[in-house]
Amino acid sequence: MNKFRNRLTALFVLLIGLSLAGAGVFTAQLIKTLYIESQQDNLAREIRLLQVAYRWDLYDAEASRLREYQDRIAYLKESAGARITLIRADGTVVGDSDQPPETMDNHSGRKEIVEAKEAGIGYSIRHSATLDADMLYVALPLREPGGAITGYIRLAMGLAHVDASLKKLWLFLFAGLGVLTLLAGVVSYRLAHGLTRPIEKMMRVARQITNMHYGARVKIRTRDEVGQLGAAINTMAGSLQTQMNRIRKEEERLKNVLENMQSGVMMIDAGGTIALLNRSGEEFLGISTGELLGREYGEARMPFELAQMIQECLDTRQPVRDEMIVYYPEERILEVSLNPIAQEDEEEGTGALVVLHNITALRRLERVRSEFVANVSHELKTPVAAVKGFAETLLAGAMNDTETARAFLQIIYDESERLNRLIGDILELSKIESKRVPLQYSPVDLPEFLAKTVQMMQAEADKKNIRLEAACEPSLFMEADEDRLRQILINLLSNGINYTPEGGRVRVTAEPVLLENGTGDYDKIRIAVSDTGIGIPKKDLPRIFERFYRVDKARSRSSGGTGLGLSIVKHLVELHHGTITVESEHGAGTRFLIELPVVQEQPGRF
Fold this sequence. Notes:
Blueprint: H1 2-53, H2 63-80, E1 83-88, E2 93-96, H3 111-119, E3 122-128, E4 133-143, E5 149-158, H4 160-210, H5 225-260, E6 264-268, E7 274-277, H6 279-285, H7 289-292, H8 304-316, E8 320-326, E9 332-341, E10 351-358, H9 360-395, H10 402-433, E11 442-445, H11 446-463, E12 467-472, E13 477-480, H12 482-498, E14 505-514, E15 522-531, H13 553-558, H14 565-575, E16 579-585, E17 589-597
Parallel strand pairs: 12-14
Antiparallel strand pairs: 1-2, 1-5, 3-4, 4-5, 6-7, 6-10, 8-9, 9-10, 11-13, 14-15, 15-17, 16-17
């Protein structure tokens, strides 16, 4: 803007300077012309006075008279202040106040003589070779009474004083022009500053708006065109600010949606560059956004199958859907959906939107369901086959043998009881897993509760001469569903009795889990059920809570187990917001550890 202001100031100064210079030149020329015209009139008047005051007979004048004329014009030069020349009609100079006449050329061709002959008076300005100076010449003819021209009187005046006067005039003009130019420069600069300052402010505001400072505004001081321009800039800035705020909100909303989506989203632009990847996509692929954004998908570190799907979608411009397995950072099954993104200009190419769904849990659930159906079918098939086989044997004639028939009927009864327990456990597990079992929480006196539970299992333990023990601190209470908690302990004690050889020991204990702050307070209770049984191999420990999983399948069936007890225990413990773990060594016994909160969090409780 300073350059513009300087150019504007220079333009103003140039225009004013040219105007003043033109006016000065015109004035000087006018003064010179008027001065010369004035001198011409004065010389003409003096010539007329000379014509009237003296008799001039130049044509037939004798030498003596010519000398008299010479002396006269020499005298008159002092009073006239001009050079006087007498010229005959034929152009011969017969007298001159400054030079000997005989040395001078014929003047018949001089401009002033020619004009005097034709117009009665003649003027001329030229350089005199005789005097080596610019001279003003004025000539008038001398006439006889009859009107014939006998000669000419010419007065000449040097223009040196005119040039000196003009030099002084030019000096004053240039001095005045310089002063006026300086004043004009100051005024012009102030004027240009006044014109450009509002524009500078507008440019500053426009630059701030360009740098995304949409709150900048122009201060409007006038209502002229500049003020209207400032108002228009303010209106534009307000509109831009509103639009940008709306865009930021939409962008933030979209960002929040993308970042909190459970599905992974990746966008490939028309050039094959990865333009977007949300947080779920990072987790699924095990790659950070910084490693992918701005890089071409073919060069980025991503699964080869995914790169092939992207290439297929870009080439065919058709949706692609498939599944793939990702092994890092953990094994996942991903459902990949790719859709082409059409561009306005087909020549620019087509991008692709990649959506990743983690279906690992779904596939695992499908596998578990399939295994569950297979296990249920297998478990149901065994008692049903036994019942059918013994019934067919009885129908074939074994009914006639009373002892055999009774033994077979007992087997059929036992198998039907086992089948009934299996169906009951399946229904119970189904209700627990679907959370259709409402828990009725109430305070439980653990010492009394453990004593009653052990008493219920004592008869079963006595059959194998197994010692049942219970240990608990006095006055230890917790909040739980007493029936479901008893079901947990009965299942664990039953397992311990079943898998402990005769003469062994099964023990249940309860103790508080103290906080680490050293105050003696606790918020959890740890219940441990241990036995001296056959134990569980380490390879089977991670799977013992699965449905129908048995460590020793033959012994489990012979003991009447359904393979669902530990799975039911695990789900009931989780419904109590607790955890269950197992410690075991093959041949040295097993220990189940249950940690439950002292107080249960219930909806609506404050």
